[in-house]
Amino acid sequence: MGDRQQAVDRVDVIMKQVAQVSTAPDLTSKELCQRIQRVAHHLETRLRRELAVFGIEPWEIELLASLRRVGPPHQVTAGSLQDIMQLTTGAVTKRVAALEKKGWVRREVDAGDRRQVLVCLTDEGEQRALEVFATKTETEARVLSALDLDTQRRLNDDLRTLLIDLEGAVRT
Fold first, then answer.
1. CA 152: distance to chain centroid?
2. What does pTM read for this prediction?
3. Cα separation of 56 and 58, whole Å?
4. Quick one: which of 146, 154, 153 has its CA closest to 9?
5. DSSP string, the chain
6. So what's the pLDDT on residue 152?
7. What are the phi and psi torsion angles at 158 (to 5°)?
8. What CATH class does 56-134 carry?
9. pLDDT one-digit tens code per residue, 133-171
10. What's the rounded Cα separation, in Å, for the pair 21 and 124?
């Protein structure tokens, strides 16, 4: 019985082409980055499709989820949202304004520091988020279903190590 040939993905094909013209001694990191980018693209595409049924974009559910995760009264400063979501000040302002028009968030001046603006989750925004959380979670699970749970845990640990190196550890 002969050796079974391992299945090839599009990244293998791309990397074979890159290896022919590259002078780099090792292309493992490039190969891994290509796969991470492609998986992220597939996840984003599927989330958009699944969430479109609810009339909500992935960034909208992420902002609502960020507010919900902080716990009651579900409000944070715009600066905190910027850190949580890794966005620029302008992007946060634009996104908050869009969700404010939908009635899902509101802005309030912080009574403790009048210079700060708080972004607050409305009851309607929380209800909207709860309606779609399960769909988002199920879609994420389906995208990663080719990997067993032990592999997913190991990959999580490895990516956590990488993120801590890139972003620093977070105090809890």
1. 16
2. 0.79
3. 7
4. 146
5. -PPPPPP--HHHHHHHHHHHH---S--HHHHHHHHHHHHHHHHHHHHHHHHHTTT--HHHHHHHHHHHHT-TT-EEEHHHHHHHHT--HHHHHHHHHHHHHTTSEEEEE-TT-TT-EEEEE-HHHHHHHHHHHHHHHHHHHHHTTTS-HHHHHHHHHHHHHHHHHHH-----
6. 97
7. -65, -45
8. mainly alpha
9. 999 999 999 999 999 999 999 999 999 999 999 999 988
10. 55
Instruction: Collect the ranges in the chain with pLDDT lower than 70.
Output: 1-5
pLDDT at 3: 53
Q: Quote the pLDDT of residue 67.
A: 94
CB 121 within 8 Å of CB 75: yes
Quick one: pLDDT at residue 116? 86
Domains of the chain, by residue range, sit at 10-20+28-53, 56-134
Lookup: tokens for 42: 């597939």
- Tell me the one-letter amino acid at 124: E
Q: For residues 24 and 30, give the distance between their C-alpha atoms in angstroms, rounded to a whole number.
A: 10
Which residue is it, tokens 């959380």?
Answer: 133
